[in-house]
Amino acid sequence: MRNIITQISRLLVGILFIISGLIKLNDPVGFSYKLEEYFNANVLNMEFLIPYALMIACFVVIFEVVLGVMLLLGFKPKFTMWSLLAMIVFFTFLTFYSAYFNKVTDCGCFGDALKLTPWESFTKDIVLLFFILILFFNQKYIQPILPKTPLNLAVFATYSLCLFMAYYVLQHLPIKDFRAYKIGTNIQKGMEIPEGAPKSEFEMVFIYKVNGVDTEISYDDVMANKIPEGAEFVDRKDKLIKQGYVPPIHDFSMEKDGADYTEEILNEPKVALLISYDLKKSKEKGMEKLEEFNKMASEKGYMVIGMTSSSEEVIDEYKKKFGLTFDYYFCDATTLKTIERANPSIVILEKGIITDKKHFNDIDRVTLK
């Protein structure tokens, strides 16, 4: 009976690790953005790791896939089990911290393919921890399913294929796009809220300084004059009680000189967006290709604009540096990072519908009509 339970756990954990790892391996840049959120000063306060987020992301997702394969094949059971246990304990702590303190709203466990709330992510990790503990205490039942040489070759092949996949998607774009801005998306429709959709519910709370500590006091208590003696008013805010319907695209905008041009540009028949969420972090190799593309697209009747969250000073600096003649419009960095996985990247719109997306390495393959 113990052997049967162990083999079922082995199958479940191995498959889940492989699926989770491959989804993130499809988009390691997106996973690195999530790691940056965790490394932020407001979460784990490990900002010194932010410059290495992409490297860490690639290592973690490749290791996750390889561990899943190692478990299913029975390769080095002791090393595999200790690695699985260490990884799940770490991620269980991370998801609990995010859920309890409401620091990161999506753990990124399954990338953009499956969104989980912090508590759902924590529950998933607790279940996984349970199955991994079963495996850990029953390692004698985890035996190799192949002879030594084929076993070693299978693990090496898995590792090599994962490395190749990581390199490919970093040099191009994710093989499968799970984001709200995938090709075929109508941005305007993506921003619509259906009639009768549930609305978010908020509670008004007041913040008072009580004995030197900022303390939330409910609206009812304030109205009932249940404010601690000597409390000093600090602020008032609306606290989210229940999340209503949030459209797939809810933070997209195109602003210039304080004016919003979103609707106007989305109604244009042909638009080419050259996106760099942060010009200071853009790749010089890609920036050098933009002006030539701008001229080619303009000749074919496209409205060519840049989109960035950088300041006017930085925009002017980079336009001069690379001889760019198109205008840049402002959009939130998080939104642009969701749209793009390359800095810079190219997005083609036809009346607000995304018809093509390319990494700057593939700028010569952009479909222009």
Distinct helical segment count: 12
Helix content: 40-55%
Strand order of the largest sheet: 8-7-6-9-10
- What profile does the largest beta sheet have? 5 strands, mixed
Number of domains: 3
Point out poorly predicted stretches.
Answer: none
Order of SSEs: HHHHHHHEEHEEEHEHEHEHEE
Strand share of the residues? 15-25%
Rg, alpha carbons: 25 Å
Q: What shape does the CA trace take? A: globular
Number of strands: 10
Overall pLDDT metric: 89
Q: Which structural class do you get from the secondary structure elements?
A: alpha+beta
Distance separating the two termini: 64 Å
Subcellular location: Membrane
Transmembrane segments: 12-29, 49-75, 82-101, 121-138, 150-170
Protein name: Methylamine utilisation protein MauE domain-containing protein
Keywords: Membrane, Transmembrane, Transmembrane helix
Kindly describe this structure.
By secondary structure, the protein is an alpha+beta fold. The protein folds into three domains: 170 residues, no CATH class; 42 residues, no CATH class; 114 residues, Glutaredoxin (3-Layer(aba) Sandwich). The protein is 47% helix and 16% strand. A five-stranded mixed beta sheet has the order 8-7-6-9-10, covered by helices on one side. Strands 2-1-3 form a three-stranded antiparallel beta sheet. A two-stranded antiparallel ribbon has the order 4-5. Strand 1 and strand 2 form a beta hairpin. Helix 4 runs antiparallel to helix 5. It is globular, with a radius of gyration of 25 Å. The protein starts with a helix and ends in a 10-residue tail after the last strand.
